[in-house]
Specification:
Layout lengths: L3 E7 L21 H13 E2 L6 E3 L3 H10 L6 E2 L23 H7 L13 H22 L3 E6 L1 H11 E2 L14 E6 L1 H7 L2 E7 L1 E2 L6
Parallel strand pairs: 1-5, 3-4, 3-5, 6-8
Antiparallel strand pairs: 1-7, 2-9, 7-8
Helix pairs in contact: 1-2, 4-5
């Protein structure tokens, strides 16, 4: 039976990550160092083949697409955007430490919503609907491989919900420019809505045989 491969890739590094600030929907570009690291990864390792690339609308993801899938025009999906941290955007945990709502949110209360932002429950609901729509589209069109260039929070959440082996979100954390490959088997997907996580990406380049 035909299977479908989905490669989830986290965007390259941005300047703001160095300060530990919550950067969700703030549209910052890749840093110069982030671009350099991606170019090195692309040169020294292999990103998986994809016939279509989906991306978050934010600059850091679209710029990542151009560096590692330069031959493809990415399909921008608004729902692939990172969590909206509202008034917590750009602030660090230390700066928010006096907020009772932040303490509840940090403790895992899925219904707590940052002021003018998005709760974890709303975030999870949004990205799961988006992911299932992509999977169903692949199956409907017979497209057997795609890449999704998005944000760390989205990758961790999607793998925690759909990935096999089962693991908690932070167990799926990955560095900038890295990610995971998933295999969708239609029968398993239709029955249980799960997918096999079978590889870390990018891969080591295969050495030429003498």
């Amino acid at each position: 039976m035909k299977s479908y491969k989905i490669h989830l890739i986290r965007h390259g590094a941005i300047e703001d990550t160095l300060s530990g600030a919550y950067i969700g929907t703030t549209d910052v570009p890749l840093s110069d160092e982030g671009k350099r690291q991606l170019k090195l990864l692309d040169h020294n390792m292999d990103y998986p083949y994809a016939s279509v690339v989906f991306t978050s609308p934010l600059k850091r993801c679209k710029e990542t697409c151009k560096l590692i899938y330069s031959h493809l025009e990415p399909v921008v999906i608004e729902q692939l955007i990172e969590c909206n941290f509202g008034e917590w955007e750009g602030k660090t945990a230390d700066e928010l430490s006096d907020s009772e709502e932040f303490k509840k949110w940090l403790a895992g209360d899925n219904e707590v919503k940052p002021p003018k932002g998005e709760s974890n429950a709303d975030f999870t609901r949004r990205i799961c609907l988006m992911f299932e729509s992509i999977v169903n589209g692949l199956i409907k069109t017979g497209t057997t491989d795609c890449a999704i260039v998005t944000h760390g929070g989205i990758i961790m959440t999607l793998l925690a919900v759909y990935g096999l082996p089962q693991a908690k979100p932070f167990d799926w954390a990955c560095d900038n420019g890295y990610g995971y490959s998933m295999r969708i088997t239609p029968m398993l997907w239709q029955r249980d809505k799960v997918a096999e996580v079978y590889n870390l990406i990018p891969n080591e380049k295969e050495k030429d045989e003498d």
